[in-house]
Amino acid sequence: MHDFRNLNLWVKAIDLAEMIYKITTIFPENERYGLISQMRRCSVSISSNIAEGCGRNGDNELIHFLTIANGSACELHSQIILANRLGFINKEITNELNDKIDEIKNMNFKLQKSIRNKNK
To answer: Cystine design at 76: which of 26, 42, 94, 112 (Cβ 3.0–4.6 Å)?
Structure first.
């Protein structure tokens, strides 16, 4: 069992979720149950799966949940592109969010690799 609060990966993921919540407040009201909801749930899923994996019994389970977190990061990446194409967020915000997601995905892959290497 690991304390997720000590993982920089989790800290960056929770920061991203907070940013998504703030940014989506400017989206059109009619997106409340569409893209706003989807982006918020995705962003929360990243940090939540990291935390859940840390609370599981072994490294294989942790890797499984890190993989799910990475899938949510990719899903959010796609939604950010759509939000930009629909004119809800500008290119600058899009690039900033995508950079943060790329960083999280890279950190996630490195953590998974280090866990696998530890268990060889």
So the answer is: 42
